[in-house]
Amino acid sequence: MTKKTEHDLSAIITRIDTGRHGYLEQTLKGLKKDAGLKVKKLSADRTEVTMAGITARAVGGELAALDNWSNAARRAMTQQQA
After folding, report:
1. pLDDT tens digits, residue range 51-74?
2. I need a labelling partner for 10 at 20 to 30 A (CA). Which of 34, 41, 53, 56 fits?
3. Closest among 78, 73, 79 to 31, alpha carbons compared
């Protein structure tokens, strides 16, 4: 992972964390537009999100999947540093 990629992931994670304080719907829309967030409904209660080469799934909708994506991005960054 390059420093730029790591910085980009870090910036997206920060946007998601900031969005948790009442702006997550706006953050979700912004990430779709600015960062290429793709959302796929797998079933009535399962959602998959993909962005920056990282995919995450969740039961509970887009926001839960976005939260899981944020955690997966953190893990990817940590693994690259190890």
Report:
1. 999 999 999 888 899 999 999 999
2. 41
3. 73
SS3 per-residue string spanning 9-74: HHHHHHHHHHHCCCCHHHHHHHHHHHCCCEEEECCCCEEEEEECCEEEEEECCHHHHHHHHHHHHH
First to last CA, the chain: 12
pLDDT at site 55? 96
- Backbone angles phi and psi of 81, in degrees to 5: -80, -25
d(CA 53, CA 24): 21
- Kindly provide the b/e burial profile for residues 15-51, where b requires at least 16 CB atoms within 10 angstroms of the residue's own CB: bbeebeeeebeebbeebeeeeebebeeeeeeebbbbb
Residue 1 is predicted with a pLDDT of: 60
- Name the residue with tokens 């979700």: 28
